[in-house]
Design a protein that fits this description.
Elements (H helix, E strand, L loop, with lengths): L9 H6 L17 H18 L10 H14 L6 H21 L2 E14 L5 E6 L15 E11 L5 E7 L22 H7 L7 E7 L7 E6 L2 H17 L21 H22 L21 H32 L24 H8 L1 H14 L15
Parallel strand pairs: 4-5
Antiparallel strand pairs: 1-2, 1-3, 3-4, 5-6
Length: 399
C-alpha cells in the first residue's frame, strides 16, 4: 500500500501524491545506518531532557549508561554506543545553554500531533497517540501526523518554538547547491508542517543541527502566519489529489518509493535505457555497431585499457538491464491485467499466473519473536542444520 502522509514526508507529499495512493505498491522504507543512529540519538537526548534540572541524567553516569544501552539495543547500534554516548552528552549541553540564553523552558518532548488543514488556509492541530512499530499513526483521512522532538516556550507564552533534532548534514532531494550546510528551518517542508502545531501569533520553528561529524548548533526563525496559511492550503490541495492518479514527474523520480510501475518513470526509463544500452553496446563491441552493415572482427589485439573500458561498460549495461527488466515486467503485467493481448515472438500469448510461496529471513524471525527470543530460535535452527552459512562474491561500485 502507499505511504501514509506524515510531517517527515511533507516534501515528497507536496511534489507528487502518487506514492501516497493506498492502491500503489511502494518499496520498503528500510532505514539505513544514519537513520538508525539518528533514532538512537533522539531516544537518548529525549531521556536527558525529561530529567529534572537538579538531577541531570547526563551527570548520572550509571543512569546515562543505561539509557545509552537501551537505545543502541532498540536500534541495533551497539557498534556506535561509545560515539552516541559522547555525541549526546555534548549536544544536550549546547541545547540547554541555548534554552537558558533564550529564556525558554521545555514544555513538551517527543509528542505526536496531527494537523488538519482546509482550503482557506485555516487548520486544526490535536495531540494523538505515538506511531506504531511500523511508523503508522492512527489518524483520519486528510490529517497530517508527525512527532515533535521538542516544544519550548517563554515564561509569558508569547514565544513558542517547535524544534527538531537533525544528526546529519541537511540533505535536500531537490537542491541544486550541494554546498548547503545549514538550511533555514522555514525552507524545509517538514518544519513548516510541524510549525503548524505551535502558536499562530508567536510561533517559531527551529532545527538543532547535531551533526555527528561537526559542532552542534541551533537555528531558529519565526514562522509567519501568512507562511503557515499558505502551507496549510498546499497540504489541503495535496490531500485532494491522493488516490486520483495524480503524478508530477521530475528530477526526484529516481528516489521515489513508488517509481516501480509508475507510468512516468516507466516511460522515462524505457527511453533512457534505449540510449544507454546502445551507447554501452558500442563501447563493448570491437567496432561501433552499424545497423546497415556487418562489422568485420579486427585481427589485432585491442589496445591497452580497451578491455577495462569494455568491462566497465558491461557492468553499467548489466545494471541497466536489471532496472529495465523490473519496470518492463510491471508494465506488461499492468497491460495484461487490463485485457491487452500480447503475443511473444514464439506465438504465445502472455497470461498472469498467481503462485503462492513462503519466505523465511532473519529479519522476519526477529520481528515475529522479538530480539532475544528470535536470536535463540535462530541459534536452534543453526544447530539443527536448518540454516546454512555460505559466502558469495558481489560486485559493488566503491567511491
Amino acid at each position: 500500500m502507499g505511504f501514509q502522509p506524515s510531517a517527515s514526508k511533507t516534501e515528497m507529499f507536496l511534489l507528487c501524491q502518487r506514492p501516497f495512493d493506498p492502491g500503489i505498491e511502494t518499496e520498503p522504507d528500510e532505514p539505513g545506518e544514519p537513520a538508525l543512529y539518528g533514532s538512537a540519538f533522539h531516544k537518548i537526548i529525549a531521556a536527558c531532557l525529561r530529567s529534572p534540572k537538579k538531577k541531570l541524567l547526563e551527570k548520572n553516569a550509571a543512569g546515562y549508561a543505561r539509557e545509552v544501552d537501551r537505545a543502541v539495543k532498540a536500534f541495533d547500534m551497539k557498534h556506535a554506543a561509545q560515539e552516541l554516548a559522547g555525541h549526546v552528552k555534548g549536544s544536550v549541553q549546547v541545547l540547554r545553554n541555548w534554552l537558558t540564553r533564550e529564556k525558554l523552558e521545555i514544555s513538551q518532548i517527543e509528542l505526536a500531533y496531527s494537523v488538519e488543514p482546509d482550503s482557506s488556509g485555516i487548520w486544526g492541530a490535536r495531540q494523538i497517540k505515538p506511531h506504531n512499530e511500523n511508523h503508522i499513526y492512527d489518524v483520519k483521512e486528510g490529517e497530517m501526523p508527525g512527532t515533535v522532538d521538542m516544544i519550548a516556550e517563554s515564561a509569558n507564552r508569547k514565544r513558542t518554538v517547535v524544534l527538531d533534532h537533525k544528526t546529519g548534514l541537511f540533505e535536500d532531494w531537490f537542491a541544486n547547491d550541494e554546498t548547503v550546510r545549514f538550511a533555514r528551518p522555514t525552507t524545509i517542508a517538514q518544519m513548516r508542517t510541524l510549525g503548524l502545531i505551535g502558536s499562530q501569533l508567536h510561533g517559531e520553528v527551529a532545527i538543532f543541527h547535531a551533526d555527528r561529524r561537526g559542532l552542534p548548533i541551533v537555528y531558529s526563525e519565526p514562522h509567519e502566519v501568512s507562511e503557515q496559511s499558505s502551507h496549510a492550503r498546499a497540504l489541503h490541495a495535496a490531500f485532494q489529489n491522493v488516490g486520483r492518479g495524480f503524478l508530477r514527474p521530475g528530477e526526484y523520480c529516481k528516489r521515489c518509493p513508488a517509481r516501480v510501475g509508475c507510468p512516468a518513470s516507466a516511460a522515462h526509463l524505457l527511453v533512457e535505457s534505449s540510449e544507454v544500452l546502445v551507447e554501452a553496446a558500442n563501447k563493448i563491441a570491437l567496432e561501433p555497431i552499424d545497423p546497415n552493415a556487418l562489422c568485420a572482427l579486427p585481427t589485432e589485439p585491442p589496445p591497452a585499457g580497451m578491455i577495462e573500458m569494455r568491462a566497465g561498460a558491461l557492468y553499467d549495461l548489466m545494471k541497466r538491464f536489471r532496472e529495465l527488466e523490473k519496470v518492463a515486467s510491471t508494465e506488461l503485467k499492468r497491460l495484461v491485467r487490463g485485457g491487452a493481448v500480447i503475443e511473444t515472438r514464439e506465438g504465445k500469448v502472455l497470461a498472469l499466473q498467481t503462485q503462492t510461496y513462503e519466505t523465511l529471513s532473519k529479519k522476519s524471525v526477529l520481528e515475529a519473536l522479538r530480539q532475544v527470543a528470535g536470536e535463540k530460535e535462530l541459534d536452534r535452527l543453526r544447530k539443527k542444520g536448518a540454516i546454512r552459512e555460505a559466502t558469495r562474491e558481489m560486485l559493488i561500485g566503491e567511491k
